[in-house]
């Protein structure tokens, strides 16, 4: 039988043994990372974006969706709130709108083999769609072309021009996607690509290369291409809200200390996003705080009725405080926000986010 150790020996042994590493405290959550997850973004755009003018259409879409613009009585704001997950101006479903500039349109490099097709050249334009997530379902892919103003439109044929759009491959133009008549290249020329460039029920490709050609139907000067862009509207079903609740009546102010919405403003500059967020500069997120024990759990005059479970839990807590806790103060009505920003490909993106602002709080 081994000899028993003396208490002094046990103390010396404890001092000689390595001490266990202290338990690390859980890392505090990064507010910027949490906000990114709430906005459905995997990461913030890296570095400073290449600033470019925001298309007027994107500003109009943002102002129509932004609740502050609507409350200020902006002339383009509708009387009724816009439908969720729907872009009224374009008549399609969607909660994400991207304005993607075409790369290579200003180079004016003719596509190989285009000389046999006519005197006017074709241009290869590439669109970076790598930021589109697989879960998104495109509802519109509108190609918009702007041609340089000059003598071409004035001297153009009376019976118009013809636009040809084809997929661009390494060896030259690929299959033609569409062909349509254009009266004059003075105004922007638009064409819907969804269903032609890829299937309407499929996700968007990571990149799209097009061979574009605008040729007069009668001998005339060619119209040089000045700008090409793609307006891509997609629907992320994960970000679609439930049907909106009926409007609530004006409630009496809750008593002091009761559950209610408290003001909390989130500034994009404070989290370092002011370089790539175009608008807004921040938003009033708010938070819920207050007591939910009796009588605070009971609805005030004119307020919406409280949940039966909250009232029952408050009664149980009042009768036996140790049996269960009081109801929790949580958001009872949430409203959306819209954010206009540059992504990593310098595209102008408008995203509509539901349930971002706590307008009312209640006990549950």
The fraction of residues in strands falls at 25-35%
**Global shape:** elongated
Uncertain regions spanning at least 5 consecutive residues? 4-23, 71-78, 108-118
Q: What's the alpha carbon Rg, rounded to whole Å?
A: 30 Å
Roughly how many Å apart are the termini? 64 Å
Q: Give the neighbour order of strands across the main sheet.
A: 8-5-10-3-17-16-13
Total of DSSP H or I helical runs spanning 4+ residues = 6
| Residue-averaged pLDDT | 76
Regarding quaternary structure, what we see is single chain
Helix proportion: 10-25%
Q: Count every beta strand, where a strand is a DSSP E run of 2 or more residues.
A: 17
Give the topology string: H per helix, E per strand: HHHHEEEEEHEEEEEEEEEEHEE
**Main sheet attributes: strand count, strand direction, barrel closure:** 7 strands, antiparallel
Class by alpha and beta content: alpha+beta
List the helices and strands and how they pair.
Blueprint: H1 7-16, H2 31-38, H3 56-65, H4 67-71, E1 86-87, E2 92-93, E3 96-101, E4 122-128, E5 137-147, H5 151-154, E6 161-168, E7 173-182, E8 189-192, E9 207-216, E10 225-235, E11 260-262, E12 265-267, E13 277-279, E14 282-284, E15 287-289, H6 308-319, E16 329-342, E17 348-363
Antiparallel strand pairs: 1-2, 3-10, 3-17, 4-9, 5-8, 5-10, 6-7, 6-9, 11-15, 12-14, 13-16, 16-17
Keywords:
364 residues; alpha+beta; seven-stranded antiparallel sheet; four-stranded antiparallel sheet; 6 helices; 17 strands; elongated
């Amino acid at each position: 039988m081994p000899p028993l150790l003396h208490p002094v020996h046990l103390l010396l042994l404890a001092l000689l043994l390595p001490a266990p590493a202290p338990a690390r405290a859980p890392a505090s959550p990064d507010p910027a990372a949490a906000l990114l997850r709430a906005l459905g973004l995997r990461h913030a755009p890296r570095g400073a974006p290449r600033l470019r003018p925001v298309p007027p259409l994107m500003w109009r879409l943002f102002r129509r969706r932004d609740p502050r613009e609507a409350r200020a009585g902006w002339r383009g704001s509708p009387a009724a709130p816009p439908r969720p997950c729907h872009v009224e101006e374009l008549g399609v479903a969607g909660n994400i709108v991207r304005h993607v500039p075409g790369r290579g349109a200003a180079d004016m490099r003719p596509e190989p083999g285009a000389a046999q097709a006519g005197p006017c050249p074709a241009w290869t334009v590439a669109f970076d769609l790598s930021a589109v997530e697989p879960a998104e379902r495109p509802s519109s892919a509108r190609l918009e072309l702007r041609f340089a103003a000059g003598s071409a439109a004035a001297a153009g044929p009376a019976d118009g021009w013809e636009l040809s759009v084809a997929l661009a491959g390494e060896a030259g133009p690929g299959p033609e996607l569409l062909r349509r008549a254009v009266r004059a290249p003075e105004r922007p020329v638009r064409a819907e690509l969804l269903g032609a460039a890829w299937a309407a029920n499929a996700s968007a490709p990571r990149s799209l290369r097009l061979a574009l050609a605008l040729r007069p139907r009668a001998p005339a000067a060619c119209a040089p291409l000045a700008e090409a862009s793609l307006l891509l509207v997609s629907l992320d079903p994960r970000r679609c809200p439930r049907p909106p609740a009926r409007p609530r009546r004006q409630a009496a102010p809750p008593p002091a200390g009761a559950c209610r919405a408290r003001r909390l403003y989130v500034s994009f500059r404070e989290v370092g996003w002011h370089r790539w967020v175009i608008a807004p500069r921040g938003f009033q997120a708010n938070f819920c705080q207050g007591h939910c024990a009796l009588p605070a759990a009971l609805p005030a005059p004119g307020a919406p009725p409280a949940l039966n479970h909250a009232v029952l839990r408050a009664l149980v807590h009042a009768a036996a405080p140790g049996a269960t806790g009081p109801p929790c103060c949580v958001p009872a009505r949430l409203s959306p926000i819209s954010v206009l920003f540059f992504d990593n490909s310098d595209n102008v993106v408008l995203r509509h986010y539901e349930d971002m602002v706590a307008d009312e709080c209640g006990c549950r």
